[in-house]
Design brief:
single chain, about 450 residues, alpha/beta, abc type-2 transporter like fold, 2 domains, five-stranded mixed sheet, 5 strands
Length: about 450
């Protein structure tokens, strides 16, 4: 397209952006809601991180079954615990088993079992403590057991390492422990998957409804007044409509970004405040991030996946908001502004229910084809990228497809705007639009 057709884009964009950004209502909503999110989430983080003031809980673990998957054998945990001065763990009765799944199946009706699985992971070793979902064993006892067994297993590894370099490196590997209910990981992973997908779905849906009407009205404003004749002296129709659409989108994205940044600052700021207020505080953010990475793999919730997920959501919003601009370009009379909103609302609602059904039926998983259809990819691809369900290159292709689609829609909005600029006559229809377009 000839660059001269976009003559006046810069001044129109700057003027519209300035007018929108200086609006008192816009500033009040943006700043007020940002502060509310920042302070509210920060306060909640501090409150939930407060240490428990309850009395010390009695250690109530009597028997533990151990399953080894490392090939290093099962240590004499009771003896090790006695050697390091842990009286509670030293009194526990330890038995062994060869088949973890068989043990869990045999103890489905037992609510008091404690199964310890010795495993290897990326950082070294893991002491995985599994209990019944209905267990009456308190969490403090399980944490005490995990800490003691980690120390004991570290000593066991060192004692079996010998003097070779390879064995010495193995002896120095980190030993972690984790406490979980049987099937808790799979259930938790499914819940997080559905929540993340639903979050992106509802955010895109609500933001398009919130800003789409504003863009539709803004684009049609001068078109339905006598100002357009004066504007066209120095601005082309393409520059006018493109500048107005992109200015309103920019203001909308800034407002949305301010809210997201406030949420993140509230989470990390509250976590930092809790660390300063409570002695011995362990970062909840780091704890949950490590847990999520353990569930979904190292690709999930990384810096690159977070950035790409945000870009996918932003470009998805831009795609839908430009459709609202196309709708605004079709308005020929002020009273018709409400009628054309169905042009962007209808595909939004259809896509919303298609994705919602796919998420509910597939517990968060959707068809791979959805990632390359801009109408639905805006709602599903950001979550899939964030959770590591799809490779980064799939997300990048989806981003490129959405960007190209948004650009083509912007050109369409400008063409429709110009073709119907001085349209008068019968009620507007698609046939009339194409007829006016041919005369251009």
């Amino acid at each position: 397209m000839d660059k001269r057709k976009l003559s006046g884009f810069g001044p129109v964009f700057a003027y519209t952006f300035k007018q929108q950004a200086k609006n008192v209502r816009y500033l009040a909503v943006t700043i007020g809601f940002s502060l509310l999110l920042l302070l509210g989430i920060g306060l909640v983080m501090v409150m939930v991180s407060a240490p428990d003031d309850d009395e010390e809980v009695e250690f109530n673990i009597k028997e533990v079954t151990v399953c080894d998957k490392t090939g290093l054998g099962i240590p004499e945990y009771a003896q090790y615990a006695a050697a390091i001065g842990d009286e509670d763990v030293s009194k526990v009765s330890f038995t062994s088993c060869d088949d973890e799944k068989k043990f869990l199946k045999d103890n489905e009706e037992n609510t008091d079992y404690v199964l310890v699985v010795q495993e290897e992971n990326e950082d070294g070793f893991l002491i995985n403590i599994v209990t019944s979902p209905d267990t009456e064993i308190n969490g403090d006892s399980l944490d005490m057991l995990g800490a003691a067994l980690s120390d004991c297993f570290q000593t066991h590894v060192y004692g079996n390492s010998g003097l070779s370099d390879e064995a010495l490196v193995q002896a120095l590997l980190r030993v972690d422990y984790a406490v979980s209910d049987f099937d808790e990981v799979d259930t938790g992973k499914e819940i997080v998957t559905v929540v993340v997908c639903m979050l992106f779905l509802f955010v895109v849906y609500m933001m398009v409804l919130l800003y789409g009407q504003q863009i539709c009205t803004e684009v049609s404003m001068e078109k339905t007044s006598k100002l357009v004749e004066q504007l066209l002296v120095s601005v082309t129709p393409y520059g006018l409509v493109a500048g107005k659409i992109m200015a309103v989108i920019a203001v909308s994205i800034i407002q949305f970004t301010a809210w997201i940044v406030s949420i993140l600052l509230g989470i990390f700021g509250g976590d930092a405040a809790a660390a300063l207020m409570y002695e011995g505080y362990e970062s909840k953010v780091s704890l949950y991030m490590d847990m999520l990475k353990g569930w979904f793999g190292s690709m999930a919730f990384g810096a690159d996946t977070v950035v790409l997920a945000v870009l996918l959501m932003v470009f998805g919003l831009v795609f839908y908001l430009i459709i609202a601009g196309v709708a605004g370009s079709m308005v020929t009379k002020p009273e018709d502004a409400g009628n054309v909103q169905v042009i962007f609302v209808f595909p939004l609602i259809i896509s919303f229910f298609i994705v919602l059904a796919a998420i509910v039926q597939g517990e968060g998983s959707v068809s791979p084809v959805f990632h390359f259809i801009p109408f639905v990819s805006a709602m599903v691809t950001p979550g899939a990228v964030l959770l590591g369900d799809i490779p980064l290159w799939v997300g990048l292709i989806s981003l490129l497809v959405t960007a190209i689609g948004a650009l083509l829609l912007l050109l369409l909005a400008a063409k429709v705007y110009k073709a119907l600029l001085f349209y008068t006559g019968k009620k507007l229809s698609l046939k009339a639009i194409f007829r006016s377009r041919k005369k251009e």
